[in-house]
Amino acid sequence: MSDRGSPWWALTAVWMRLVADPLSSSRARPLASVAGTRRKFYYITLLRDPVSRYLSEWRHVQRGATWKTSLHMCDGRTPTPEELPPCYEGTDWSGCTLQEFMDCPYNLASNRQVRMLADLSLVGCYNLSFIPEGKRAQLLLDSAKKNLRGMAFFGLTEFQRKTQYLFERTFNLKFIRPFMQYNSTRAGGVEVGEDTIRRIEELNDLDVQLYDYARDLFQQRYQYRRQLERRQQRLRSREERLLHRAKEAPPRGDAEEPGRVPTEDYMSHIIEKW
After folding, report:
1. Contact criterion met (CB below 8 Å) for 23 and 29
2. How would you write 231-243 as a 3-class SS string?
3. Rounded to two decimals, what is the model's pTM?
4. Which segments within 126-234 are labelled E, that is strand?
């Protein structure tokens, strides 16, 4: 999203594309026509529990969703068919079982959140032979963590109220209605066994590590904002009390109070005159 002076915003799932060309989104494109306009963009994202997110994408694909229009641009080119083979033949993958979804080694649903947040140019984009698999995974995870830390705001789907709190305090905005925590989702309605859950966690090991890191960082940011807000409230209350006392205090410089005892210097002055 751009600064407060602009109503425009850009939306894309891929960090690389958004950073490389923030005006590529149709919602943000009108900014390019404003001559001499300088805009400051704030990058934000929402993360979700990896298992729930994976199951949700499977259900989405099962109903016929595809990402055929996504070019997967990286370093100025799209991946070759050898680098990114399709998981299915035909127009879509509708009706695929969860087992089929998990069995495809080229399924971009695996570790999607890390890949979307990382700088893929560090690992040769979609060329899996560019560097060893273990080093590639660590570079992607470290890059995703770094980019997440650098974002002005990020939220967690599983913590809607805290996400709203941080968003409002970060951008000085106020939502009309409070966020609702809906736990009844399509992913939540899928009954899977423990073995399947473990398999999904294995397929999304990088996402699991990223989510654990993000959850800890999210709580730190939330606690910091709460402490800062409480400190500001205490300062405001103290200033209000001081102002109230100042208004109630008697004005200075009035006539001498009756019964006041003259000081020694004043008595000496009177004696000298006599």
Report:
1. yes
2. HHHHHHHHHHHHH
3. 0.79
4. 153-156
